[in-house]
């Protein structure tokens, strides 16, 4: 009973898209802020696990905790929405304006929450800037922030194209996490199913727009040599574009159109 | 069936607030004492895991055990109540007096249970004070007790402000644990969902008022150079205030007002 | 549906007490013997894990396996009964004679099963005494048997008092395991919930009467310098007394009287 | 609902015994062959985990995978049948001939499957015998095969008696695994419950007749100095006899007669 | 309720075979492409875990993630189909043409998805070929690609026969994963049950046709000295043939004909 077949998942995808589209800006912002902050705290946890164990894999194993909270509490994550909201537009159930408005406010909420958490994290960790020697997690944040911007840019268009492909592969997985959570009606089922693809993308170092909304500005607060335009031009915009393509094409469209459109009354089989 | 949607969770939050508000002082004290002692034993377990493995992450992984027992047996933890009881007051379902009385007695119960467990732990571990060389766990307790009081105070207002922010971030997570437990109707679901945010805050070293009710007096019993006023002025009061703000604002109010107030009959979607 | 609220758990506690009280001596002995042997095999497994990994925490993580089998198959463990059977007596549903008879036979069954398993373990491990050089697990059993008797005794009354307090803290947890198992109607729920407090007490080295019924005589078989009176006077009787107090007061009475006596029709909330 | 009480488990034990007794020789052989091969592949996996980690405990943690498949797919394992089929004979529901016929064909099926898998494993691993230097797993198989036969025999009757006791303790656990699987109506419940006792026996190095049907002939294929009579006289027959006694007496009879015979309509309580 | 008995599993096997047979080429290609890419990303994750921990066992523990997504979302994997589709043909419910058409298009979809993911992985990892020094994962891919082709070929027919046997043993397990997933109606049940046999085959280094569709061409992209004919003649065709035999004979036929054909109304017992 717990398991939800792919056919029903496809219907859930559409109803989630419609339901999200009808939310007020206030709700999009509250839920978006919480999501941004939750991914931020997950990144600090993952870096803590990585630095303590010297195993990035350990960081990836704990990273999904924030996403799990987001999924269970129905919060708004723009990368997930990239794979759902456009389906409602393609099916002519919402307007382009509704789609863009929704994505804009969730993106904004995610950004505010991420940067706000970065500021709280910085103030607790550096004791309002009085501790100037960064700890191991803070050093890792600085290093990652520089690698994710200056690193790609230093390799020119090949580097930026690599960031773009990593954005595609990343959000293919994130949106698989969103869809996988729909395969279960139980909390443990949603937790395990949602966590798996998030673990995969983080372990493989792929690029997630909302993670970067925390890690790059946090790095800047702790002294990374990254400018605002480095953040946006060498990473945020490129990765967001990759996320849109990967999430929408390889998950949203692929799953919805192979299952959502079938007319056959036969139950869809598992492998 | 197991999974409870955020809308229903918001209703559960209010009904839990009302139900807790109606408890007798006797029940608040019994349930509060048990909770305090359970967090105390969890701290000793976490420090054992940390010292045996040299990995604080291992300590954080086992720390949630006490909170899980508290949640499953419906015991009273004042940090959790900070995010629930005021909602009933805001909605004018209980008086300010009822709210304060409830929080006062749960706080008192948590304190009694924590200090009582500290005394039992001390008597077993030091064999009534006859073993004067503290073991590795006891040494860690002493060190942490000093760091959590003298450590912050030595950095002046920046240090105390850092403790305050760590109190905010801590109870944002603890109350997420309380709310996450409400997303499931099954025991495994409640266990996993509740444990996740507790693991996060302990791993990141955030400040929890009830944990400190054990670790600071226990440290004092084993010889930490911490005075009663160090305990309360450099930590307990500041952290409690941070806990109130974090738990109430970032979890209680945020979740309740984005889900509890909606009038729409549409089911709230997950991400 | 799976989760059982604390109020219902309190009722289950009383009905379990009554049901256990009505068992025949034959059933108490069969179920008691199996429980004793199951805890015995769990101890050997835990020591194997500890010696192979050099991490006592690993031993504690695997130790609950025997208790899980006991809980799922409804077997009889006297330490658990300490927190349940007296409730039926306090409520005047059984006589003092019934209570004592039940506890006596379960204690006896646990003792027989523990010593019988010790004998089988010794005969397999020492090949009927022909292998005189004990292996690593056997050495640990010898060492623990001496520490749990001669160790306490050598510190005089402070040492014995420490054993008594460790008995209190131990059975607070064991009985929490019994009660936690009642919070779930599913096998995975019972397994996880029951295992948690058992893991805690074993990791922290607390004193459990039935565990000691195996480890001390087994140590004696392998050559520990422990006499029959060392076993009973420096450990078994003191720890059993501590177990009675901890299990009955901090779990049985605390949980039953805060939940079982309420008349209010309101559902009891989780934290 | 998922959890099945011990009373119902006792009934399931009898109905499983009757149902197994009615199977055709063809089905006993197919299901027996698969079980033998599944335990064989589990042994190779366990030895791989042991040699890679240098922790036999890791091997024991992965070993139950084959038994889990056997339980979920209802396949036939003669060691499990030792604790069930005779109950139907004792209760005069099947004849001695039916009992012996069933056990004979399942034993035969297990033996064929084990040896067939050993041959496939040997052909893949040694590339049809052209690779003469055995790998680490193969070396471990050789060593274990010699220890389990020549090892016991070299210690004379004390060694063989030790093998016999290890056979008793082993199948006490294996049959606990069979019975534990019956305590749950869910797949995760069956998996966890069944795996626990299997993990215990393998970690503690006890002797299982069907495991030995793979590991001893496989060792012989890779060059262990073990003769056919060493296999059967110094291990297989003795261990099988121990398995019959342990599984039937300590699990089958103990559980069935304390729960299956009660007439009381009272629900059997958990601890 | 969650658990599905073997008899019902046998029926599910046939209905899945029929349902899959009726899918359009478009759906077979979409679902096949996703499956190929998902196994590809799982391989990169497994190699990352292996290289970070120096424990191939860790790689095997994370490898099943892709298969889990495939199972939960009902995607198409040709190796799984080898054990199901022919059953419908044997039972004369589909024609040989339908069977071959289905297997051909799923094989093609798997191949396209695998190679496409290899190309995306290569472009992100090598930054469009500008980074010429391969990383640790890439080095492992190169090495494995050479070992899986040139390695076998260098040992002549004995090597190729070994690859064939490893293909048989591999798909025995993969198809056990497909069938095991059918033993549960819950998402956690399907996840655990499906993951177990996949973990086994990957840990033991057996040969899977679709895994090789990624790892060999990916190795070639990064510079492995493997030609197109090495790929197909020394591995892909041989392994595919082994996969057909192992999956069909040892899982599909064995399970279906011992359970699916029984006429008896008696419930099939678990062990």
Automatic annotation (TrEMBL), chains A, B, C, D, E:
The chain crosses the membrane at residues 28-49, 61-90, 102-124, 158-179, 191-216, 236-259. The keyword Transmembrane applies. The keyword Chloroplast does not apply. GO terms for cellular component: plasma membrane. It is a multi-pass membrane protein. It comes from the Bacteria. GO terms for molecular function: formate transmembrane transporter activity. InterPro entries: Aquaporin-like, For/NO2_transpt. It is found in: Membrane. It holds the Pfam family Form_Nir_trans. Keywords: Membrane, Transmembrane, Transmembrane helix. Belongs to the FNT transporter (TC 1.A.16) family. This is Formate transporter. It comes from Pararcticibacter amylolyticus. The lineage of its organism: Bacteria, Pseudomonadati, Bacteroidota, Sphingobacteriia, Sphingobacteriales.
């Amino acid at each position: 009973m717990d398991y939800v077949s792919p056919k029903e998942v496809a219907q859930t995808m559409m109803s989630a898209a419609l339901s999200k589209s009808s939310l007020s800006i206030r709700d999009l912002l509250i839920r978006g802020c919480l999501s941004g902050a939750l991914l931020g705290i997950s990144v600090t946890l993952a870096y803590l696990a990585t630095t303590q164990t010297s195993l990035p894999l350990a960081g990836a194993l704990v990273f999904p905790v924030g996403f799990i909270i987001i999924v269970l509490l129905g919060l708004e994550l723009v990368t997930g929405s990239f794979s759902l909201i456009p389906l409602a537009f393609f099916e002519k159930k919402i307007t382009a304006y509704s789609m863009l408005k929704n994505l804009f406010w969730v993106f904004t909420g995610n950004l505010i929450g991420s940067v706000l958490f970065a500021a709280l994290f910085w103030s607790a960790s550096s004791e309002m800037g009085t501790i100037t020697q960064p700890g191991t997690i803070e050093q890792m944040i600085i290093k990652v922030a520089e690698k994710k911007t200056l690193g790609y840019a230093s390799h020119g268009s090949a580097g930026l194209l690599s960031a773009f492909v990593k954005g595609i592969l990343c959000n293919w997985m994130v949106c698989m996490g969103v869809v996988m959570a729909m395969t279960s009606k139980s909390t443990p089922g949603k937790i395990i199913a949602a966590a798996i693809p998030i673990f995969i993308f983080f372990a493989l170092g792929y690029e997630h727009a909302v993670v970067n909304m925390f890690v790059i500005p946090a790095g800047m607060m702790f002294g990374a040599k990254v400018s605002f335009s480095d953040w946006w031009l060498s990473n945020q915009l490129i990765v967001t574009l990759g996320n849109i393509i990967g999430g929408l094409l390889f998950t949203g469209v692929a799953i919805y159109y192979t299952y959502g459109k079938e007319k056959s009354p036969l139950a869809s089989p598992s492998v």
